[in-house]
Amino acid sequence: MWFFVEDGRWTAARSCPSALASGTWLLFGAGQRDVVLVRRARVVGQRNLVRVRRVCVLTSSSRILLDAGDPNVTDYISHLKRVIMDERIFINDIIVSHWHHDHVGGVDDVLDAIENGKSCKVWKYPRNDAPEPVLKNATLQELKNGQKFVVDGSTLEVIHTPGHTTDHIVIYLHEDKSLFSADCILGEGSTVFEDLYDYMKSLQLISNINPSVIYPGHGNIINDPKERITMYINHRNQREAHILAALEQHPEETFDEMQLVKLIYKDTPEQLWPAAALNVNVILTKLFKEKKVAKENAGWKYGQTASL
Predict the structure, then answer these.
(1) What is the tens place of the pLDDT at every residue in 158-171?
(2) Which GO terms of the cellular component aspect does the record hold (predicted)?
């Protein structure tokens, strides 16, 4: 049975319609299979991306919260406190999927809101490219790849999936073969990433796990994980092929990112070219790591024997 809280009213359903996933904080944990969804939708940015926070909460009194959303979101905190009171539960652990503010920003608010805020542990995989976020009410506990949280017979495994960020993790619920993907795989559109080389490896890792369902950090629940992951991989491979083909056609020339955008993104509105140039840069960086392109001065050229 799934329970939905929306506008202060409780609704029960036998299954979770995907339409209810948009704009939802999903309270999630481990144990029995009753899950409470706390719903709040808002749309941000030109990409019309619905922000979603999912936290699993199940029927035992001990719960695990996955991500805490943005700071100072009073509606979310009010819903969370109501669920805690109505269900008579305790959040003993908060797992943060990565450093972005819409995942870690609300941690202090959550700790202020719960009775056991001083004893609740906050877990996060370490960054290797910048200092960690500073929390007012807790010290971050270091997550490790493969670390398991066992609650009432259910096993949640931490899997390091860099690419979107260096510290990004997903959570795999073994008993249900469910994956909580945070920002690695979205329910709509495609994600952004800092390192495409690492990101593609993370996608392949998740594909090998072969989850039965994916609960993303943004957008609708994904009931066809294999197809969605394959689509992500094929889309990126196609972009790579376009860039390699453009460079191969002019093997003696050097191109910067914007020159390649003008060759490849001819049908894209010009105001979107700067964003496209950023995408081209991360693709070229991946190809450089794979020794498929060479870097010369401020530009790039075709060269399968390029060295790192």
Answers:
(1) 999 999 999 999 99
(2) mitochondrial matrix
Report the alpha-carbon distance of residue 83 to residue 66 in Å, rounded: 15
For the domain 33-223, what is the CATH superfamily, name and number? Answer: Ribonuclease Z/Hydroxyacylglutathione hydrolase-like (3.60.15.10)
**pTM confidence score:** 0.81
Q: Which CATH class is domain 236-302?
A: mainly alpha
DSSP letter for each residue of 212-269? SEEEESSSS-BS-HHHHHHHHHHHHHHHHHHHHHHHHHSTT--B-HHHHHHHH-TTS-
- Cβ-count burial 243-258 (b if 16+ within 10 Å, e if not): bbebbeeeeeebbebe
Query: Which segments of 69-209 are extended strands (E)?
Result: 90-96, 121-124, 140-142, 148-151, 154-160, 169-173, 178-182
Q: Which amino acid is at 45?
A: G
Instruction: Tell me if residue 59 falls in helix, strand or coil.
Output: coil
Structural domain boundaries of the chain?
33-223, 236-302
Q: Tell me, yes or no, if the two domains 33-223 and 236-302 fold the same way.
A: no
| Residue 192 to residues 98, 167, 230, 237, Cα–Cα distance (Å) | 13, 14, 17, 15
Over residues 214-243, mean pLDDT:
93
Sign of CA dihedral 45, 99, 198, 234: negative
Hey, which of 27-31, 290-294, 297-301 has the most confident mean pLDDT? 290-294
